[in-house]
Amino acid sequence: MKVQRIIFETIVVLFICLWGYAAFSKIFEYEIFKGQLAKSPLLESTAGFVAIFLPAIEIVLALMLIFDRTKCAGILASLALMTIFTVYLIGILTFSKDVPCSCGGILQNMTWTQHIYFNIGFVLLAIVALIIVKKTIWGQNFRRLVRG
């Protein structure tokens, strides 16, 4: 139980760092981020909306992961968003000639292959966290997992 709790909380902290960093790098470089989104063949018509909506969602996810009552939902939503990002990346790489990078901070220094592996790694981390939740929460109290 204690090892599972440590693994779960480590995954939660990694996602909090990921979402916080991603959101604030997009906010601080808003015009660049919006311009890169506008170059995407799938997002060009909604770049303004996505440039505001996406960092807001990332902040909400980071906040959800901080509080006990919303941690599980935060992990599930993180899994969904990372899956969407990964499918989007694969789709853009497969079907587009020009591949704009709308990533912020250090992520923009990754190759596309590295970025896909990075995303898949976080998808797998979310799945591990949800498996731990299923094993320890359904049938037990969630507070035992998060408080020890």
From TrEMBL:
Per the record, its GO cellular-component terms are: membrane
What InterPro entries would the database entry show? Methylamine_util_MauE
Where is the protein situated, by its record's location annotation?
Membrane
> For this chain's UniProt record, which GO biological process terms are given?
methylamine metabolic process
Topology in the lipid bilayer is annotated as: Multi-pass membrane protein
TM segment ranges = 7-28, 48-67, 74-96, 116-133
UniProt keywords (A-Z) are: Membrane, Transmembrane, Transmembrane helix
In what residue span(s) does the Methylamine utilisation protein MauE domain sit? 6-131
Protein name listed in UniProt: Methylamine utilisation protein MauE
**Organism the protein comes from:** Chitinophaga niabensis
